[in-house]
Specification:
Elements (H helix, E strand, L loop, with lengths): L1 E2 L3 E6 L2 E6 L5 E4 L1 H11 L4 H11 L4 H17 L3 E2 L1
Helix pairs in contact: 1-2, 2-3
Length: 83
């Protein structure tokens, strides 16, 4: 997966912001969401994001897998990520 052209990602101390430079819309991302976006934008599989989240946060694998899948679906539907 790759970010669509014109999408900028900036990290902050509270997670990050994903900006669509074409229309100015943005998504505010929490710490785990920024991990997902950065991982997928780097061309890595969603499973890598799951591994990072499980290693860094007190969360069960099943919950991390569900959350990563849901966010990935939302980003694809919003045409921010290209499969």
């Amino acid at each position: 997966m790759k970010l669509r052209k014109g999408i900028a990602v900036t990290t902050t101390e509270y997670g990050g912001v994903l900006l669509d430079e074409r229309d100015g819309s943005y998504w505010q991302l929490n710490d785990t969401s920024i991990i997902v976006v950065e991982t997928l934008a780097a061309g890595q599989a969603p499973e890598v994001a799951v591994e990072r989240i499980v290693a860094e946060f007190d969360v069960e694998r099943a919950e991390a897998e569900s959350d990563v899948a849901q966010l990935t679906r939302q980003l694809v539907e919003a045409k921010i990520l290209r499969p």
